[in-house]
Write a structure and sequence with these properties.
- The chain has 157 residues and is α+β, with helices and mostly antiparallel strands.
- It has a single domain, classed as Thiol Ester Dehydrase, Chain A (Roll), CATH 3.10.129.10.
- Helix content is 26%, strand content 35%.
- The protein contains 6 helices and 6 strands, in the order H-E-E-H-H-H-H-H-E-E-E-E.
- Strand 5 and strand 6 form a beta hairpin.
- The chain is elongated and about 60 Å long.
- The relative contact order is 0.25.
């Protein structure tokens, strides 16, 4: 175990139980949804055909749930993080998810943002696993688009 990893563990453990930190708004466009459909070969009409999707209970096209999930990477970049202050960071990797729930569809042209709160921190040799409760909010909606527990692993020198 490195001293840097221990110091990071100590610092990040102090975040457990803090209020969620909020990121910036991001607009989900039809172009982005279409590009995701092309990349994943998921061309279901509720995502790419505004006329047919208008006839559904959604009232228009919606983002893929997995697109919303994948946007966590970008959405989290606007959430202030203490990781920049840590010494000896070699790299960070996605370690996985404990759970993901797609609660509410994201309508095309809606704005979304992420919130994050640390729920667990584990020291793993020269690495620290930080589990954050992530919520993707839809501007003006009562229910979030998704909730997930995301584990990030930071490796230290």
């Amino acid at each position: 175990m490195s001293e840097n990893a221990q110091a990071a563990y100590d610092a990040l453990s102090g975040l457990i139980g803090n209020e969620p930190v909020v990121g910036e708004w991001f607009q989900m466009t039809q172009e982005r949804v279409n590009e995701f459909a092309d990349a994943t070969l998921d061309h279901q009409f509720i995502h790419i055909d505004p006329e047919k999707a208008a006839q559904t209970p959604f009232g228009g096209t919606i983002a893929h749930g997995f697109l919303t999930l994948s946007m966590l990477v970008h959405l989290s970049t606007s959430i202030p993080s203490d990781l920049e202050k840590l010494e000896g960071v070699l790299m960070g990797v996605n370690y996985g998810m404990n759970k993901v729930r797609f609660v509410n569809p994201v309508p095309v042209d809606a704005r979304i943002r992420a919130t994050a709160s640390t729920v667990n921190v584990e020291l793993k040799g020269n690495a620290v696993d930080q589990t954050r409760a992530m919520t993707v909010e839809i501007e003006g909606a009562d229910k979030p688009a998704l909730v997930a527990e995301w584990i990030g692993r930071t490796v230290f020198a």
